[in-house]
Specification:
Layout: H1 18-25, H2 29-43, H3 60-67, E1 70-73, H4 81-95, E2 105-108, H5 124-129, H6 150-155, H7 158-171, H8 195-202, H9 206-209, H10 213-217, E3 221-223, H11 226-238, E4 244-248, E5 250-253, H12 264-269, E6 279-283, E7 287-290, E8 304-310, E9 314-319, E10 328-332, E11 334-336, E12 345-349, E13 352-354, E14 357-359
Parallel strand pairs: 1-2, 3-14
Antiparallel strand pairs: 4-6, 5-12, 7-8, 7-13, 8-9, 9-10, 11-12
Helix pairs in contact: 1-2
């Protein structure tokens, strides 16, 4: 999908952009400058609790947008329409033009068959109303459909292509349900009958293999709800033969005037998808995932790690994914302020969650 009335034609990508990869992973001054500005650009659109972010002329952020030739918004179908409205008004102000997006070119990538914008305590109707399709901008969007699954094509795995096609058919509503159970029967893949059987299939002989970093880095389970993920993680951690450590957070309210209304015990009970719980239980060998950016691009939100040593104030881990794969690093406790909670409070805790399993709720951008 593309804005700017089609004035800019995007050429097809013939090969992976190796120069871009070297800029992201390199240690040169040019690479560091590139990563610095990319992080600044991405942080522009982090909405505050008031659902807005002010970018003014004359600022560093404003200068980047003024000189930007192309803006790519990935997973745009998950974003609230107000976020696009904010970008539209900001670009009009910065570029001095009343045209849509100030006349700049914006590419919006996404699939409406996947997760829609999250509306806290909202109904399905509220989610649909928050979609980009219900924005005044939608009439100015030109739609382009990608028809070839390049990932399954390059892998050369026939079963992977069949599975991808079946998912598309389910998303299009073309696969009938079993009238007796109301479930969809998958003709490809393997079916298990219980969570324990699933664990044994994905993580066989975990007591002997849990220290093998490569073995863990190629395994993950997807689940649809965070509570299911938590139960599975507790089950698999109990199978690890190492000693268990519990790390409790320090929680405090940001507004001193409201401190008397929210006792510490209540703050300790709060747990959201982007916030580690009050009581973090870990074992050596447990796979974990960062939920905050610490040192991009090496340690970012979504980086998978494996616990190597547990200490009082830091955790020593080995990186399983990304450009720092195989490195040993230390993770400290940091202040974390949840962005989607009506109560403004701060939690000092390790910025990680146990992720033997991935919930669909984690969409990392």
């Amino acid at each position: 999908m593309c804005c700017s009335s089609g004035k800019v034609k995007l050429p097809p990508i013939l090969k992976p952009p190796e120069p871009l990869c070297s800029l992201l992973k390199g240690e040169t001054a040019q690479s560091k400058d590139f990563v610095k500005h990319i992080r600044l650009f991405n942080n522009m659109f982090a909405m505050t609790s008031f659902k807005s972010n002010v970018i003014c002329k004359g600022t560093g952020q404003g200068h980047i947008l003024e000189t930007c030739k192309l803006i790519v918004w990935d997973e745009a179908t998950m974003s609230h329409r107000n976020a696009f409205h904010a970008l539209d008004k900001t670009l009009q102000d910065l570029l001095g033009s009343s045209a849509i997006m100030g006349g700049a070119t914006v590419v919006l990538a996404g699939d409406f068959r996947q997760t829609l914008p999250i509306v806290t305590c909202g109904t399905p109707a509220d989610q649909i109303n928050a979609c980009l399709k219900n924005s005044y901008l939608w009439h100015h969007v030109r739609k382009f459909s990608l028809t070839t699954n390049m990932r399954s094509l390059t892998q050369g795995d026939l079963s992977a292509g069949q599975f991808a096609n079946k998912l598309l058919q389910i998303g299009d509503g073309k696969v009938p349900e079993d009238p007796s159970t109301g479930l969809i029967i998958m003709p490809c893949g393997q079916i298990v009958n219980s969570p324990d059987e699933l664990l044994s299939k994905v993580y066989p002989n975990i007591q002997q293999n849990f220290k093998d970093q490569d073995w863990f880095s190629h395994r993950a389970i997807l689940a649809s709800r965070n509570d299911v993920v938590e139960k599975l993680n507790v089950t698999i951690q109990k199978q690890l033969p190492e000693k268990e450590y519990a790390y409790k957070s320090i929680d405090c309210i940001l507004n001193d005037d409201e401190a008397v209304q929210y006792p510490t015990e209540f703050l300790n009970s709060i747990q959201t998808p982007d916030l580690q719980g009050h009581n973090l239980i870990l074992k050596v060998g447990a796979p974990i995932m960062l939920i905050r950016n610490i040192d991009a691009p090496r340690l970012c939100n979504g980086t998978r790690l494996i616990v190597k040593k547990l200490m009082q104030h830091v955790i020593q881990v080995t990186v399983l994914t990304g450009c720092a794969k195989g490195e040993d690093v230390f993770i400290p406790r940091i202040p974390i302020i949840p962005s989607d909670n009506t109560i403004q409070f701060k939690r000092i805790q390790f910025p990680c969650v146990v992720v033997s399993h991935y919930p669909f709720a984690y969409y990392l951008c």
